[in-house]
Structure formats: C-alpha cells, structure tokens
Amino acid sequence: MTTPSAREQSRLLNIGDGLTMPLEAVTQTFAIVGKRGRGKTATAKVLAEEMIGAGQQVVVMDTVGAWWGLHSSLDGNAPGLPVVVFGGIHGDVPLEETAGAVIARALMSHRVPAVIDLSGFRKAAQRRFATAFIEELYHSNREPMHVIFDEADEFAPQSPMQEGRHLLGAMEDFARRGRLRGLTCTLVSQRPAVIHKDVLTQGMRGSCARPSPPRRSCR
C-alpha cells in the first residue's frame, strides 16, 4: 500500500482509529445507522469537526438539542469550533419557526458552519421550518454545503402523515439532486427501517457508515 504524501495526509479527515476519509467526502452523501448508544451521533460529530476544521461549511439539523457543544471545548471553558447555533437553550441566535428560508439565505450569504437546534419547537413547527429551509437551499444554493440530518427519520419518514409529505418531497429533491447544487448530506438514525427508502438509498450509495469508536467527540 502506498503511503500518502504529506499533502495528501493534510487533506484526510481523521474519523477514528485507523479510519480516515478524503476531504472530498464533503461532496458525498452518507448514512450513519445503528442501535441506540452505539456512537452514531458521536461519529457524526467527529465527521462534522473534521470537515469544519478543514474549512468546509457544515450545517446540522438537530431536533433534540444534542449538537450545541460544537461551539465550546470539551470542558466547556473555552471556545470550540466557529459554529453559530440557531435556537435551543444554548443558542447564539434565537429561532422562529417561520424563519426557515431566512436562515437558509443567511447561511448561503455568510458561509459559516451552523447548528439549527429545533428542539424547542413542536413536531409540526419543526416540519414547517425544515421544509422552508431545505427548499430554499435546494433552489438557491450553488456552493459546497454538507448538511447533517440527525434523527433523519423525522425529516424523511417512510410513511409520512399528510402534513409531513411536503417535507418528504423537499428531502427527496435534496438527497437525489442536491449535489448538482453543491448540497450533500449525512443521514443519522437508529431507525433506518422507517426512513423513506428513496432518501436512504442516496446515503447508502455514498457510504453506509457503521459507527466505530470515534477519535473524539463534543459535549
């Protein structure tokens, strides 16, 4: 096996012990699936850290409030990554459920990494925000952006209720054709059986990542 050059090594994303990925992974779509407590979110956080550390724009759609720690150190006493947290009890910027398109345009304009914390919204409000956000990105974005959908089954359920079909349609467009617009994603879920198959298979084509012990994780 050929040893990577120093230049090539500087472009590797170090995900865990013995597991690296090329920087070009930011332009691919992935699925991280597994049982509760097996390290799915921790693995996704390390992936986000590595991409952001390499100067890439990563946006996390967080329905449970688990990602705000990206912007602080592990001990909470120092700054972490240059991530803007929208919403949630630890947010830098408050979030309104009607602001999905507005936040999308702001992120496309300023090109900063971000966490969109939807945990303070009810399910219907989460869907409204996410639909407007995803549609605006799909129709207007043209620069590389990697979006991590934690609890991806909330955004693309296999059998959506009537009020969730609009969001599912937006997710299908994003997953299937978003790459032409610079958009790729990582789907994270402990319930892959209930993720809509047209969305999940896009992640499986890029890579189906089975969580391994991560090198580090955020709070």
From TrEMBL:
Keywords assigned by UniProt, alphabetized: ATP-binding, Helicase, Hydrolase, Nucleotide-binding
SMART domains reported in the protein's UniProt record: AAA
Highest taxon in the source lineage: Bacteria
SUPFAM superfamilies: P-loop containing nucleoside triphosphate hydrolases (SSF52540)
Molecular function terms from GO: helicase activity
Pfam short name (any one): DUF87
Domain AAA+ ATPase: 26-193
InterPro entries tied to this protein: AAA+_ATPase, HerA-like, HerA_central, P-loop_NTPase
PANTHER family: HELICASE MJ1565-RELATED (PTHR42957:SF1)
Protein name: Helicase HerA domain-containing protein
UniProt source species: Gryllotalpicola reticulitermitis
